[in-house]
Amino acid sequence: MDAKLQSLSEVLQRAEDRLATRDDSANRLWPTGFDPLDHHLTGGFRAGELILLAGPQGLGKTTWALQVGRNVARAGRPVAYFCFEHDPQSLLEKLVALEAGEVGGFDAPELRHVRTAFEARDRRSLGIAERLDEHQGGAEGVHRVRQYADSYHLHRSSGRSTGIDEVTAVVEDIRETTGVGPLVIVDYLQKVHVPGGSPIEDERITVAVEGLKDLALDLHVPVLAISAGDKEGIASGRRMRPSHLRGSSALAYEADTVLILNNKFDVVARHHLVYDLSSAEKFRSWAVLSIEKNRSGVDKVDLEFRTRFEHSRFEQEGRLVTEQLIDERVFTE
């Protein structure tokens, strides 16, 4: 009999077996560490699901995905981050800045200080932690990264060669080594290589997103893929929506969850600015994370998180947006 064919009785029995060993939620649920996002996702990301993250340029999509991966790795579970846009050291620098920021607060070394420490322009024979020790939380930030560094795998990906087959091979290798499938992060989806792909971009993107969805199901892992927006979505004057994802309708269709980041200042209704001008600057430091699609729970939920981009992170304790949001951005100085 086909190994992929299962009777409903078999599916039910396997569910009962997992419950009996009390590890079902641990195997299936992957908390993001962001609250109340995990609450609305009924626990977090799920194994076998494809999650898309989108947003205009400069809204911290890589920062957010990297931070989710960090939360998973800190919990002792493996992460495979496929990055088509940044080299591994730049991602490491972001993580050090994040950790230092959580320890040292406003006095922690900013990302620019961390990058300077990694570059070692002064040629002093000091380690990275020693170079950052003059800043509050700097050395501790390096130490905190070391604690989960073995669980966080960074893959320098290339749009010319890194396709679904290579992603699959890496995931299987991590599972064989650790005994656990990793959270897979793809940064970003439109760069995934499609061998012999169509000259039409929408068709190539369809192949890539379908491949990632199949990978999630076949390997029983969650896949978080960052998606680029189309020209209309990234243009000033609009709030990004699922219809603005660059590629065919297969993107939103194949995804189990669609999350979109927007800057709060850009999408809040005008009257919130007109009657309280002091709010304008405050809104700039908040990102709205909208659950646009969610097969495992509620959707059409707008959450907000304060940004700390100088330390390459978001504050993880968020809240529901109470102000009215609009699709046409309003810029009021």
Task: Describe the overall structure.
The chain contains 15 helices and 12 strands. With 333 residues, the chain is α/β, with parallel strands linked by helices. Strands 3, 4, 5, 6, 7, 8, 9, 10, 11 and 12 form a 10-stranded mixed β-sheet that branches. Strands 1-2 form a two-stranded antiparallel sheet. The radius of gyration is 21 Å and the shape is globular. The mean pLDDT is 88.
Q: Helix tally? A: 15
Residue-averaged pLDDT: 88
* Main beta sheet strand tally, sense and closure: 10 strands, mixed
How many strands? 12
Which terms summarize this structure?
single chain; 333 residues; alpha/beta; two-stranded antiparallel sheet; 15 helices; 12 strands; globular
